[in-house]
Amino acid sequence: MNENIIEIDFTDEEQKKIEDYAGKHGLTVEETIKNALFEKIKQQGLSFVEWKEKYHKGWYLNTREQDENLFEEYLDYLKENKLNYNEVN
């Protein structure tokens, strides 16, 4: 099984809404779902401090150099998730 595939079950009502939206905007159902998931991820984007708190416990004990390295890692996290620094900070 491909671990990059997400299985989502929709109710009949949700499926109808997705299909209607896709039809009105000239999109496929898959594109509509992908766009919705991207927006949800973007809305849940973490600021640098939130990201450190979530992924690097004890970050406040870091030296300036360690914090700079974490910031580079954070920028990679944003890039991997196609997020813009200015949108989440």
TrEMBL record:
UniProtKB keywords: Plasmid
Q: What is this protein called?
A: Uncharacterized protein
Q: Which domain of life is it from?
A: Bacteria
Extract the InterPro entries matched here: DUF6290
Natural source organism:
Amedibacterium intestinale
